[in-house]
């Protein structure tokens, strides 16, 4: 076991073990958590009480999580002088499942983003974001309940790989001349240049995860969202590699929309349909025909935009959870940032982290605890017991604090 300088490994608890792609979850697993910056501590205090209550109600004394704090962000910087200590990354690698609050992106701290660094270091290649409506939430759509999707966003490639050169820098100039000389392609002098690497390996494993999810959860279709009509080799590659993985690894289980439309298709009635849509059309489709989409697989930047837009359709960021998942480890986190103006006020909505905990429990196979939390959130919202962000869209509701919302979820779980 790794020796930790700052983190304290809880005594009497066990590690999640992995072998051959399968996880074995002990009854008393150590789960590392990052409290987060800004409103992170407010949110974590409320969320952890919900998680512990769900496990206690679902399993009594048989199961309990041993929480282990690991440092990242401002708290890490104040304690260790580093924004993302190596031992925090190591802890996620060792204990395999972790949950985190939002982190400030340090300005001039040598990091593009702590979140991006975590995802890349641990190869958490899929950012999974479920988007659904909770009855009672004020949403901008006439029928927000029609949207119920799972977004699989590629998490480590694309323009997020961070290979970018400042306008006028010697690096940008060198690259510009190279491209001009070697490929006879013109780039305007003094331009900033970014690189967009997308590989068959990275794209296929993401689409494969989305297809496996669809098959396991009886979903009818998976849609690849891309901009391959313009970026033919990167985004177009993503689409082609996605179809390839379906053909090579999901024979008979997955049918393409094109094949299905051909007369005399012999596709099995229960096969998952794999289709693709151009990114701009996808935004329209989610607004106009949300019920036609269940699972979306998409490159990094498209997925970033689409998940916030979809979250807004059902009522906002306060209830938008997420998980960064790889083959070796997973880190669950809210979609929103640190919302620093509300820090320490016990005001912010902890719903996104609470629902990220639902995803964590599902990932661990602790489905009873996950289902209880969903029930608790549904009941709290239906009773109109909500934080300021939802209260301002829900006439007649009762505004409660972060702690108050956590309490309402626990009450809802027990009812
Ligand atoms: P933000 O923290 O997401 O906050 C923007 C606004 O969204 C808030 O002012 C609030 O709107 C609303 N909001 C966010 N979280 C909410 C919640 N839990 N409940 C209710 N409303 C919520 O975005 P930002 O101000 O652009 O970013 C602040 C910092 O967070 C930056 O350093 C950024 O880099 C970082 N960040 C981190 C992550 C991450 O850790 N995964 C993600 C995104 C951003 P109202 O003011 O209208 O109430």
Helix content: 40-55%
Backbone CA Rg: 22 Å
What number is the mean pLDDT? 94
Estimate the global geometry from the Cα principal axes.
globular
Give the tally of β-strands. 17
Ions and ligands: NADP nicotinamide-adenine-dinucleotide phosphate
Q: What is the oligomer described by this structure?
A: single chain
How are the strands of the largest sheet arranged?
4-3-5-15-14-6-7-13-10-12-11
Distance between the termini: 42 Å
Unreliable spans are none
Number of helices, where a helix is a run of at least 4 consecutive DSSP H or I residues: 14
Can you summarize the main beta sheet?
Answer: 11 strands, mixed
| SS class | alpha/beta
Strand percentage: 15-25%
Description:
The protein has 415 residues and is α/β, with parallel strands linked by helices. Helix content is 40%, strand content 16%. The chain is built from 14 helices and 17 strands. Helix 8 (257-261) links the parallel strand 11 (254-256) and strand 12 (272-278). Helix 1 (40-59) packs across helix 11, helix 9 packs parallel to helix 10 (300-313) and helix 11 packs antiparallel against helix 12 (367-382). 44% of the residues are buried. The mean pLDDT is 94. It binds NADP nicotinamide-adenine-dinucleotide phosphate. Residues 102-105, 115, 317-318, 333, 336-340, 348-349, 352, 389 line the site of NADP nicotinamide-adenine-dinucleotide phosphate (NAP).
């Amino acid at each position: 076991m790794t020796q930790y300088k700052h983190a304290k490994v809880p005594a009497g608890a066990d590690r999640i073990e992995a072998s051959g792609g399968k996880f074995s979850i002990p009854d008393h697993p150590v789960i590392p958590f990052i409290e987060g910056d800004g409103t992170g501590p407010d949110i974590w205090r409320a969320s952890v009480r919900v998680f512990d209550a769900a496990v206690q109600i679902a399993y009594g004394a048989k199961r309990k999580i041993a929480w282990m704090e690991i440092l990242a962000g401002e708290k890490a910087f104040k304690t260790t002088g580093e924004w993302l200590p190596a031992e925090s990354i190591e802890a996620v690698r060792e204990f395999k499942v972790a949950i985190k609050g939002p982190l400030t992106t340090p300005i001039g701290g040598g990091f593009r983003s702590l979140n991006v660094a975590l995802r890349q270091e641990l190869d958490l290649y899929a950012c999974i974001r479920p988007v659904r409506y909770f009855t009672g939430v004020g949403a901008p759509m006439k029928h927000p309940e029609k949207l119920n999707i799972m977004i699989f966003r590629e998490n480590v490639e694309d323009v997020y790989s961070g290979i970018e050169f400042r306008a006028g820098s010697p690096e940008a100039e060198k690259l510009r001349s190279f491209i001009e000389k070697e490929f006879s392609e013109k780039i305007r002098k003094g331009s900033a240049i970014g690189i967009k690497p997308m590989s068959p390996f990275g794209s296929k494993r993401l689409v494969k995860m989305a297809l496996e999810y669809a098959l396991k959860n009886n979903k009818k279709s998976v849609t690849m969202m891309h901009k391959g009509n313009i970026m033919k080799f990167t985004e177009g590659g993503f689409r082609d590699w996605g179809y390839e993985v379906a053909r090579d690894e999901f024979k008979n289980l997955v049918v393409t929309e094109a094949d299905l439309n051909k007369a005399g298709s012999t596709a099995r009635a229960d096969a998952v349909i794999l289709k693709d849509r151009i990114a701009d059309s996808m935004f329209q489709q989610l607004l106009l025909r949300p019920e036609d989409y269940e699972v979306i697989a998409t490159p990094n930047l498209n997925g970033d935009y689409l998940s916030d837009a979809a979250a807004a359709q059902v009522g906002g960021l306060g209830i938008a959870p997420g998980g960064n998942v790889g083959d070796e480890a997973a880190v669950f986190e809210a979609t929103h940032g640190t919302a620093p103006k509300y820090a320490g006020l016990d005001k912010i909505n902890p719903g996104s982290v609470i629902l990220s905990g639902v995803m964590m429990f599902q990932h661990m196979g602790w489905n009873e605890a996950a289902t209880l939390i969903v029930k608790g959130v549904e009941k709290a919202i239906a009773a109109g017991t909500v934080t300021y962000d939802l209260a301002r869209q829900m006439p007649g509701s009762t505004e409660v604090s972060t702690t108050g919302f956590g309490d309402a979820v626990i009450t809802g779980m027990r009812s």
